[in-house]
Amino acid sequence: DVKVTQSSRYLVKRTGEKVFLECVQDMDHENMFWYRQDPGLGLRLIYFSYDVKMKEKGDIPEGYSVSREKKERFSLILESASTNQTSMYLCASSLKGYEQFFGPGTRLTVL
Amino acid sequence: DQQVKQNSPSLSVQEGRISILNCDYTNSMFDYFLWYKKYPAEGPTFLISISSIKDKNEDGRFTVFLNKSAKHLSLHIVPSQPGDSAVYFCAASARSFGNEKLTFGTGTRLTIIP
After folding, report:
1. Contact between A104 and B106 using a beta-carbon 8 Å cutoff
2. Contact list, B4 vs chain A (CB under 8 Å)
3. What pairing do the DSSP bridges indicate for beta strands A42-49 and A56-57?
4. How many angstroms away from the CA of B22 is the closest CA of chain A?
5. Distance (Å) of CA B69 to CA A93, B55, B99
6. Quick check: helix, strand or coil at residue B96?
7. Distances from the Cα of B59 to the Cαs of A18, B18, B62, B63, B112, in angstroms?
8. Are A30 and A51 in contact (CB under 8 A)?
């Protein structure tokens, strides 16, 4: 079974803090993705990566950055958290040409 | 600009009957379509997919239909069971163009009434 794990299920941060969300997959997938899910908006792609040290912007990259130093790990960074970044964050991974497998999500609240 | 649309935010169906969830898309480059199911406090799980070279794909109780001329796909669940109550997302990608990105719809909350 593919396993995608995310470092925290729930996180509460203050405005202006730097926030790290970690994602690890154990199936040697090339592709990794970060989404946020908001009511009425579905899942929106923030960033994705096709390989180690490679990254591409998704549809809503503003205010976020990512890091992929190892194949199995993809980190999402909020440089200076703001209240409009309160959301459910979902990580996914896939083999090239196949469906994406998702982690359980991190519910981030920025106060 | 919403390229993948699920116009019904919610749907209620009696247990044992057929559930039909609909999805429309606008981007002609989309050639691969997927349905995901999501329970509260969990990540989405893959259900079924269809390539644009087909118009139907079946997997057990789940069937996806694709109408390319109408840019419309639907997911049929028959018979519906209480465990099917969840939010369903359709997603699309332009896979033959080497694009692994998925564009998701806004989701339909399905409630199965016992």
Report:
1. no
2. 42
3. antiparallel
4. 15
5. 31, 11, 22
6. helix
7. 44, 15, 5, 6, 20
8. yes
Give the model confidence (pLDDT) of A29-59 as tens digits.
999 999 999 988 999 999 999 999 899 999 9
From the CB of residue A71, how many other CB atoms can be counted at a distance below 10 Å? 16
Query: 3-state secondary structure string, A22-79?
Result: EEEECCCCCEEEEEEEECCCEEEEEEEECCCCCCEECCCCCCEEEEEEECCEEEEEEC
d(Cα A53, Cα A49) in Å, to the nearest integer? 8
Q: Taking residues A14-22, what's their average pLDDT?
A: 97
3-class DSSP state of B12:
strand
- Nearest residue to B32 via CA among B6, B55, B52, B53: B52
Residues B11-33: pLDDT tens digits?
A: 999 999 999 999 999 999 999 99
In chain A, whose CA is at the least distance from the CA of B102?
A45
Task: Please identify among residues 47-76 of chain B the ones whose CB lies closer than 8 Å to any CB of chain A.
Answer: 49
As a whole number of Å, the CA-based R_g of chain A is: 13
Which of B42, B46, B49 shows the shortest C-beta gap to A104?
Answer: B42
Q: What does the alpha-carbon distance between residue A22 and residue A80 come to, in Å, rounded to a whole number? A: 17
Q: Which residues of A, range 77-96, sit inside 8 Å of B by Cβ?
A: 90, 92, 94, 96
B104: contact with A, CB 8 A cutoff: yes
Phi, psi of B85, deg, nearest 5: -65, 115
Contact A36, A24 (CB under 8 A): no
